[in-house]
Amino acid sequence: MSRIFEALPGIEVPVSAIQKGFEQMWEGAATAGRSSPAGEQSMATQINLVLHLGFKTDAEDAVAQFGTAVKFSRSYPSRVVVLCPLLDDAGVTNMRAKVYGECSIGKSADDTRCCEFVMLSYPRSARGHLENQVSICLSTDLPVYYWAHRFSESSKLADYRYLLNTARRILIDSASAPADALSYAWPQPEKVRDLAFARLLPVRQSVGQFLGRYPVGALAKGLTSVTLAHGPDVASEARVLLAWAGDRIGACGTSDEKVELAQPAGMAPRAFALSFAYDDQRSFSWKADLATAHATFDADFGTGRTVMPASVAVLSPEAALSEAMFF
Q1: What is the number of H-type helices and E-type strands within the chain?
Q2: pLDDT of 205-240, one tens digit each?
Q3: Domain containing 230: what range?
Q4: For a FRET experiment, which of 91, 112, 239, 251 has its CA 20 to 30 Å from that of 183?
Q5: Global pTM value
C-alpha cells in the first residue's frame, strides 16, 4: 500500500504540520501563477469526504478513485481525507501525510472553487491515533461522508467505528466490495448507499418511465415470472437492478418471488435482458448493452405491440458519488 501513497499526487508534509503544508502549497501555487484561493468564498467547503482505500486497491485504481473525488469536488468543494492503510507494514511505525489542492472555475469566470486533499499512510500500530488525526484534518461543523473502496472484509471496517457512526452516509460499491457487504450488520444500515445502485439511475429511470405509461393492472395481473439475464461484466449491477425490479413489482401487489437472475452463455459482457412473462399473450422485454449505449423495448400489454429503440448509459463515477451521497 505504500505504492498507493507514492502514486497519489501531492506534497509530502509532516503529519503535525498539515495545515501549514496547505498554506505553503497555496502560496507556492500563487507565486507560480497557478490557480489558488482568491478569497474566503473560493474556500467555502461544503462537505467532508473520507475516501478509504482498502487492501484490494492497487496504485492504478487508487489514482482513478482519487480522480473521481477531484471531479466530484469541482461541483461540491470538499475537504477530502484519503486513508491509505499499509498491508505490509513491517518495520513501519510512523504515519505519513501528503497535501493536495486545486481550484477550478464554476458557473462563471468569477466563480472559483477550491478543494483540499489530505492523504494519510499508516501502519496497524498507528491505528489507535488515526481517528484523532482524521478529526483534525476534517473541516469542523460540516457533514462527513465515508467512502470505503475495495475493502477486503466487511467485518474489518468495524475498526473504523468512529467514521461509521459519524458519517452521514457510508458509501460502498457492491461491484467491488465483499459478497456480504449489502447484508452485513452495519451499526446504522440506513446510512449505507451502494454506488452500483446509484450509477444505474438512468437505467431505472428509462425502464420506469416506459412501464409507467401502462396501468398497474396491465403490468401485474397474471405475471408469472421476471427474468434478468446479464453479461459477465455487469453481474453486480444486474443484482441491483433485479432487486429494484422486485421491489417495484411488490409495490404493484405482486410477489417478488417470481424474480430470478440468469447469466446465459453468449451474452455480451455489458449487456442486460429484462423480460416479463404472463399467463396470457402479454409480454415485455428490454434489451440493452452499455458498451454500445443502445437499448430496445418490446412490449405488448394487450393494447398492441410497441417496439421502441432507446439509449442506455450509467452515471459517471463522480455523478454516482453525488447521487449516493445526497439522494
Answers
A1: 10, 14
A2: 999 999 999 999 899 999 999 999 999 999 999 999
A3: 201-311
A4: 251
A5: 0.93
